[in-house]
Amino acid sequence: MVVQSEIGDAGRVKAHGDGLIQGTTFNNASFVVDTREAGYGGLALSIEGPSKVDIQTEDMVDGTCGVSYCPTEPGNYIVSIRFAEEHVPGSPFTVRVTGEGRIRESITRRQKAASVASVGSVCDLSLKIPAIDIKDVTAEVTSPSGASQPAELVAIGNDTYCVRFVPTEMGVHSVSVRYRGVHVPGSPFQFTVGPLGEGGAAKVRAGGPGLEGAQAGEPAEFSIWTREAGAGGLSIAVEGPSRAEISFDDRKDGSCGVSYIAQEPGDYEISVKFNDQHIPDSPFLVPVVAPVNDARRLTVTGLQESGLKVNHPASFAVRLNGAQGKMEAKVHSPSGALEECVVTELERDKYAIRFIPRENGVHSIDVKFNGSHIPGSPFQVRVGEPGQTGEPGLVTAYGAGLERGTTGTQSEFIINNTKAGPGALAVTIEGPSKVKMDCQEVPEGYKVQYTPMAPGNYLISIKYGGPNHITGSPFKAKVTGPRLVNVTNASETSTLTVDPAVRASSSSFTQSAMPRPGDSDASKVTSRGPGLSKAFVGQRSSFSVDCSKAGKNMLLVGVHGPQVPCEEVLVKHLGNLQYNVSYLLKERGNYVLVVKWGDDHIPGSPFHVVVP
């Protein structure tokens, strides 16, 4: 029972701080919200102004809430603070932000159509791979019929290499280039022998270290491959806290190199357009860090780049070499999961970094010192043998749904991954309307069905085993028929993901698609994490659940509260029946958290969660 004095009263909330009065661009503005005397209620924050801002909140030790945001454009910002759905005193606040805005620098170049390759002729694909040993690079070409053959790798100079092969078939080939077993940025590449297809921005690729990170005052480089797109205008824009110098090198073979120098640290947005259309994955968000001498002093030892095993601990050492500061590390898995690594001091000046991979494939490890990447970071490590990981160059897609469709009618296509090994599948359809998507297993791999609701062109992107497109992706489907929905946005995006760990093998397709009685044992499920006992209003709480020893079943999670339902519950499968669960609560009180493996509670469930 909530007594009258405990009912949320926005008039008793106090808000104070410079972030409610003034600010400067690219600097954090902060303020404090004190709800301690205001009873029970949900706190809602919004900031509107010339630039989009991310709002960061932190529960302070004294029970207040600290809020910060970073504006990137000058002008007036409106800060609204609501408690129990009512404005607090002074809200909405008008904040005057001064300083320079984001600066945009761009160049445009006209790209000519590449010459048509023919069967029996020598075909070259150029790429730039800085700071590598050529002995650790391999190249392979897969023909339209599925035959694979090694390709010759020729060093041209200045970190530029040429992949050379002689095709024996007409059609779209897939060129895979790997450094120490890991695809280089942009790989696998599409290379058409014979007349090119429709082309356009969807067939342009960009990749390289300059699209992943840069250092202020130092050149950052990346490559763009336009061969499959045909002739057209290529534009590159860099926007951020400072003006960037952009250099362009046309290699005259359907590829080009781009170099830029950003003068100030901060987040930069790099847009690559072809005929005024963004290419896949553009715009790219690139963090530019300040030169930090201390981070450069760190060295890594004992890093195993391949041969790691799922659910087996992996570790390596980092020596500080006299540097003073804080070290942190995170690991990105192929399915997109992000986890903190454990950083432990081994001895004075030496630390160990440990993590446990939960899935096969290439993992990326960020190691930062005082907020800056150490030399070599992010590090790429392979978990499992090459045949155990998803290989996008060996995945094919076919079917009428990749070319055409009719509004209100289900279109379909097949994704064949039988030769590619297990990997996470991501299908994105972008077009005039949202589409309803379904995916089911078939002997060839997956059958994807979608229903468009408005006529026009739809781009279908298919990625496998990580961020890499399969051969031919993205595909363009032309949809005809009447408009069946009111469209408010110029473009709508629908996404479907399939985790490799939940896919049945073809040999046990019917049996493993649904759990069988007797396979499941909820008593063998383990769980841990702060979200099992405590949560805070407006903050995401989380915990992990390990079902790897509990047989086959479904994980079911529910949260029951005193009045308002739980805002959202998210269950993320990390691989090998390991799950991460997060939820968001909007009011104080006592909650019941139910976690079931099939029909049975796991040990400890139902859990009692207190929200102070």
UniProtKB/TrEMBL annotation:
Gene3D superfamilies: Immunoglobulins. One of its GO terms (cellular component) is cytoskeleton. Signal peptide: none annotated. It is found in: Cytoplasm, Cytoskeleton. It comes from Lates japonicus. It comes from the Eukaryota. Filamin repeats lie at residues 5-97, 95-193, 196-288, 290-383, 387-479, 517-611. This is Filamin-B. GO terms for biological process: actin cytoskeleton organization; nervous system development. Keywords: Actin-binding, Cytoplasm, Cytoskeleton, Phosphoprotein, Repeat, Ubl conjugation. Belongs to the filamin family.
